[in-house]
């Protein structure tokens, strides 16, 4: 089959690889009909090279049709399913607590990490990902989300990651209708954070340097600002000088801006050129994130407010302004999205004919799988108004 493979920092390639096969009674094999490039995939593209191997199959936002199913999978050939990005058993203590990203059955204990993720490096199990013609789905008796045949893929695909991640970020902001929320970063996750908060009755402010991203968020009710020094002051002025009740950081470890972020960017890129035996310990023990977005969130949120982190952070030596966090009594919430925990709340909105979350106004580029390398470059460079890329392995 054809699959998108990592070949080195900022180098993706579509290669012929062996077809997946059933390995456990609860496995299923799906023919992938749509698979998306996620902002988190750009961390593999740019930063997490020490944990990748040439030939690793990437991708963790996929859906398709079941073509083969183990006897314990609860699936049958022909079933249409969306595959959550994490692999969870559904039965362990953490799954029962709604913390599927901490699944005890699939935890990558050798790395000290939570549940296995599709296509996401040695840190999360080196599981072949879904940017491919076919995908093996472990624990298919629990993970896959069965969906109907009436709606097109783009109405369901984002149940795999984007929608639950954004929903959790808003839920973790601990706010109610009438409260105010600022969203930092209007990539795919930030777009839906803004829409979901708006849908739930909150006033939404959003900051992003890219005009096309601001325009999309404004179409769905957000009050948008460029990434300038004036933006924080303007949002504070709009919130009686206090700042919003919550800030959602949808940017993460690759933020741009302050001197610390520029230093961290240099360090992150330098690690890519170290031998793996040196690069991995540096990332594991002394890695630094680019913290411009996080610092902005700490400055912007009102005293006693909540900072909800949905952007991925990976540094172990990132400096935090603990005095400010403590003095302002800021609650900080974070974590990978627990997909199955939120699906029942999101699915009716996905299938609503009124499209309350604007799924018809989200995908900016749909391309064949063969164009994945150029799509990664376009997405990383924010060219051609690129906000969300969906790859079609059947094209």
From TrEMBL:
InterPro entries, per database record: ADH-like_C (IPR013149), ADH-like_N (IPR013154), ADH_Zn_CS (IPR002328), GroES-like_sf (IPR011032), NAD(P)-bd_dom_sf (IPR036291)
Family of the protein in this entry: Belongs to the zinc-containing alcohol dehydrogenase family.
Keyword hit for Oxidoreductase: yes
Keywords: Metal-binding, Oxidoreductase, Zinc
Residue intervals of the Alcohol dehydrogenase-like N-terminal domain: 25-143
Required cofactor names: Zn(2+)
The protein's name in its UniProt record: Alcohol dehydrogenase catalytic domain-containing protein
Organism phylogeny: Bacteria, Bacillati, Actinomycetota, Actinomycetes, Micrococcales
An MF annotation (GO) of this entry: oxidoreductase activity
Disordered: region residues: 1-20
A Pfam family per the record: ADH_zinc_N
Domain Alcohol dehydrogenase-like C-terminal: 188-256
Keyword Membrane among record annotations: no
């Amino acid at each position: 089959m054809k699959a998108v493979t990592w070949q080195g920092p900022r180098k993706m390639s579509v290669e012929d690889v062996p077809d997946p096969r059933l390995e456990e009674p609860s496995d299923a094999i799906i023919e992938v009909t749509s698979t998306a490039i996620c902002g988190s995939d750009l961390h593999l593209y740019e930063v997490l090279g020490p944990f990748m191997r040439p030939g690793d199959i990437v991708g963790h936002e996929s859906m398709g049709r079941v073509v083969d199913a183990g006897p314990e999978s609860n699936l049958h050939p022909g079933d249409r399913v969306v595959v959550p990005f994490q692999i969870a058993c559904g039965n362990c203590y953490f799954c029962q607590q709604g913390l599927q990203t901490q699944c005890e059955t699939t935890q990558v204990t050798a790395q000290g990490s939570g549940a296995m993720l599709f296509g996401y490096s040695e840190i999360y199990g080196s599981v072949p990902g879904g940017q491919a013609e076919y995908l093996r789905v472990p624990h298919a008796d629990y993970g896959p989300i069965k969906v109907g045949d009436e709606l097109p893929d783009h109405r369901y695909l984002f149940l795999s990651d984007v929608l639950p991640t954004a929903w959790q970020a808003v839920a973790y902001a601990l706010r109610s209708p009438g409260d105010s929320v600022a969203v930092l970063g209007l990539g795919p996750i930030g777009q839906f954070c803004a829409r979901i908060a708006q849908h739930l009755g909150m006033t939404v402010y959003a900051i992003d340097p890219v005009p096309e991203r601001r325009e999309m968020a404004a179409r769905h009710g957000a009050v948008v600002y460029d990434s300038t020094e004036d933006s924080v002051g303007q949002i504070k002025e709009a919130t009686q000088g206090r700042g919003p009740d919550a800030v959602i950081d949808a940017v993460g470890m690759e933020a741009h801006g302050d001197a610390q972020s520029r230093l961290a960017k240099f360090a992150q890129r330098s690690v890519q050129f170290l031998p793996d035996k040196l690069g991995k310990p540096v990332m594991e023990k002394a890695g630094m994130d680019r913290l411009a977005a996080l610092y902005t969130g700490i400055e912007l949120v009102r005293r006693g407010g909540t900072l909800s982190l949905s952007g991925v952070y990976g540094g172990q030596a990132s400096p935090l302004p603990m005095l400010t966090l403590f003095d302002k009594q800021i609650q900080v919430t974070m974590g990978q999205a627990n997909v199955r925990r939120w699906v029942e709340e999101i699915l009716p909105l996905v299938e609503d004919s009124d499209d309350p979350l604007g799924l018809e106004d989200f995908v900016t580029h749909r391309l064949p799988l063969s164009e994945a390398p150029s799509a990664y470059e376009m997405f990383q460079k924010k060219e051609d108004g690129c906000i969300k890329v969906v790859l079609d392995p059947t094209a």
